[in-house]
Amino acid sequence: MELLDQRPTVKGPADLFTGDVYYDMIALGQAPSLMRVNMVRFVPCARTAWHSHALGQTLHVIEGHGLVATRDRVFVMRPGDTVHTPPGEEHWHGAVPDRFMKHLAIWEGDDVTWGPHVTEAEYERACSGGREH
Ligand code: MN
After folding, report:
1. Residue 40 — pLDDT band, cuts 50, 70, 90?
2. Which one of 19, 25, 86, 131 is least enclosed by Cβ atoms within 10 Å?
């Protein structure tokens, strides 16, 4: 076995995130493994841009309250919640307006398709509609 060096926390780039987002790379599989695990921290209102994962993604909330939205659904996510987005499904994830949120992001490979930022109108709509949980 191996005790891995801790990698420095990375600030999420402004072209992919709105607001301040920081992530730690927890696991980065070596080929043939495609494993990817990041611990991601969002400040209130911070969120990813629209994107999809070619092989899907699983999110697991550690702390705070978050939102995850597709084009037609919104979930509020709380600690202990796990949300799966299937391959190719457009979505975004982030914090609610008045809480931080920390989640594990678990996916495979580097085939992520990024789209536009989530607009204020889209975010506000998700905030008011995200009571499906
Ligand atoms: Mn995602």
Report:
1. very high
2. 131
Domains in the chain, CATH or no CATH each: 10-128 (2.60.120.10)
Place of tokens 């008045």: 98
In the chain, % helix, strand, coil (3-state, to 5) comes to: 10, 45, 45
Alpha-carbon gap, residue 104 to 94, rounded angstroms = 12
Report which residue type is found at 54.
A
CB atoms within 10 A of CB 12: 20
Question: How far apart, in whole angstroms, are the C-alpha atoms of residue 104 and residue 4?
Answer: 18
The pLDDT-based confidence of 129 (bands split at 50, 70, 90) is confident
Return residues with CB closer than 5 A to ligand 1 (ion).
Answer: 57
